[in-house]
Design a protein that fits this description.
Elements lengths: L2 E8 L9 E8 L4 H12 L5 H9 L3 E6 L7 E7 L9 H9 L10 E5 L13 H16 L13 E8 L3 H26 L7 H13 L4 E5 L1 H6 L3 H7 L7 E7 L8 E6 L1 E5 L8 H4 L7 H16 L4 E11 L11 E3 L5 E3 L7 H13 L5 E6 L3 H7 L3 E6 L2 H14 L2 E4 L17 E2 L7 H10 L8 E5 L22 H9 L2
Parallel strand pairs: 1-6, 2-4, 2-5, 5-6, 9-11, 9-14, 10-11, 13-17, 14-18, 15-16
Antiparallel strand pairs: 3-4, 7-8, 8-11, 12-13, 15-18
Helix pairs in contact: 3-4, 4-5, 5-10, 8-11, 10-15, 11-14, 13-15
């Protein structure tokens, strides 16, 4: 982390202390000149005519003022329009971009003056969530994975003072955001951890340690238990590695009566060489993140436990390394799954769907009200949607609409993909019940259709392919430096709608 964050909610009146910075947002409007004049009185500093003219005239403007005598030392002014490029991620993304700029500054206090909510009711569902986006931005900008840097220093304390019209509501938003964002932090740490240390058994151990601390039960199946349960799909993919596979089961039950039961399944391939269908080196560089789906599940359940959400959750994570050795499964093999259905292996690099076959069948056995799986499953989804958007597949329109609402609110983008049954024909096998690979075209859809074979048809089910947004990308200030923890904010909001 860049800083040890200490948040405080305060009124709109600002009192500065030594080594303070202040953040102020201006928005284009008829009364902008008057608001700049008011701000001058708050900071007890005259903004020179040239700078003031720039604030008033330019469509988008970022200004950094330094007050020589201090109190505050630096003033960060952001000016933009509430139309065009502006969206409900603006404050989150702007503050996420600011935090790294402060890392090497001598700063003890950051005052954030939050604009009145009345001007943003068309962009945000509630005043509390509006406040929450500011806090999330600070947390996201504060994240840094420097565990293996030899010259890293302990983070210094930074006092964040949030000035708003409703300090009580802001305090509540700070508490909620902190619980959510520490879950995102933990998930990001897992995804950014190198595969040499995060083996399947280590993933299980860290999950158990972290979630047991918040009252969540975690159990782990070893190879013998997997064999006993005929989970040969997991065993086949993980059979070549010296780090044997595991199946992690996570159970969260709310203290009050649950409003529903949802199974969350996450692909946990802690490293993917491609197996005997080996990837080129460039294709392997990010494969420590092929367990991002499992990290999403872990993060969601941690957040749910911390926030005491009234929904029972069951997390299922097949954790494997897809390695190469004399024990590797081979193209042409037939794998018999726990469900009894058989898979013809046409490509060992399509391994995620194979391990999910056993995991989804096991999740169905708990008879949940819904099943949602998360997987960095296909490069095809990134080709279709880019790196900023996850594709999701379901036949349940009610769940789809709720997910879209949560996506719009949290700015974690998802897009509903075609899911017609005609695609099933592309996975037909002459020697097994199904092939693990279809033709080149529609690869994300045929992968989802493969998974559908192993889900109880009486259970509403959603498959989320997050191969694009789970990996670091340049679209926002908070996703460009490390793997992202995508989906935790999205699904936590979805669960809150129960």
């Amino acid at each position: 982390m860049l800083f040890e964050l200490n948040f405080r909610s305060a009124s709109e009146k600002v009192k500065f202390a030594y080594k303070s910075n202040i953040v102020k947002f201006f928005f284009e409007g008829k009364d902008l000149s008057g608001k700049v004049d008011e701000f001058e009185s708050v900071i007890e500093m005259k903004i020179n005519k040239l700078l003031k003219d720039n604030i008033l005239k330019e469509d988008e403007y970022t200004l950094r003022l330094v007050k020589p005598e201090g109190y505050p030392d630096v003033i960060h002014i952001y000016k933009t329009k509430k139309t065009g490029k502006f969206n409900n991620d603006y404050f989150r993304n702007t503050l996420a971009g600011l935090l790294p700029q402060l890392e090497k500054k001598q700063i003890k206090y950051l005052h954030v003056i939050v604009p009145g909510f009345s001007d943003f009711t068309d962009q945000f569902e509630s005043e509390e969530y509006y406040y929450q986006t500011f806090v999330e931005g600070i947390f996201l900008g504060n994240y840094k994975f420097d565990k293996y840097k030899s010259d890293k220093k302990n983070p210094v304390k930074l006092n964040i003072v949030m000035h708003s019209a409703n300090p009580k509501l802001m305090k509540h938003a700070i508490g909620k955001a902190a619980k959510l964002m520490y879950a995102v932090y933990f998930a990001r740490d897992l995804v950014n951890e190198p595969a040499i240390t995060l083996t399947p058994s280590e993933l299980a151990a860290r999950t158990k340690e972290e979630l047991s601390a918040v009252g969540v039960k975690v159990s782990v199946f070893n190879e013998k238990e997997l064999q006993k349960r005929k989970m040969n799909a997991i065993l086949a993919v993980g059979g070549a590695s010296s780090n044997p596979p595991r199946l992690i089961t996570i159970k969260y039950k709310p203290k009050k009566k649950a409003k529903g039961k949802i199974a969350l399944v996450g692909k946990g391939v802690t490293y993917d060489t491609g197996g005997l269908s080996i990837k080129p080196t460039e294709g392997m560089l990010e494969m420590k993140a092929d367990m991002a789906g499992s990290a999403t599940v872990i993060g969601i359940i941690k957040a749910a436990a911390e926030l005491q959400l009234p929904v029972e959750l069951i997390g299922i994570i097949p954790a494997v390394e897809n390695a190469i050795s004399g024990n590797a499964y081979k193209p042409g093999d037939i794998v018999s799954t726990a469900s009894g259905k058989t898979i013809e292996v046409k490509n060992t690099d399509a391994e995620g769907r194979i391990v999910l076959a056993d995991a989804l069948e096991y999740a169905s056995s708990f008879k949940p009200d819904e099943i949602i799986d998360f997987a960095t499953l296909t490069g095809a989804i990134a080709v279709a949607l880019g790196l900023f958007t996850a594709g999701f597949f379901t036949k349940n329109n009610s769940i789809a609409e709720k997910l879209k609402l949560s996506s719009k609110k949290t700015y974690e983008h998802i897009w509903q993909m075609p899911f017609w049954d005609e695609y099933k024909k592309l996975l037909e096998s002459k020697i097994a019940d199904i092939s693990n690979l279809g033709p080149r075209w529609g690869g994300a859809i045929t992968a989802a259709k493969f998974l559908e074979h192993f889900v109880d048809e009486n259970r509403p089910w959603v498959h989320i392919d997050l191969a694009g947004p789970a990996i670091q990308h340049e679209f926002t200030n908070y996703t460009k430096d490390s793997n992202t923890g995508f989906g935790i904010r999205l699904i936590t909001d979805y669960l809150m709608r129960y």
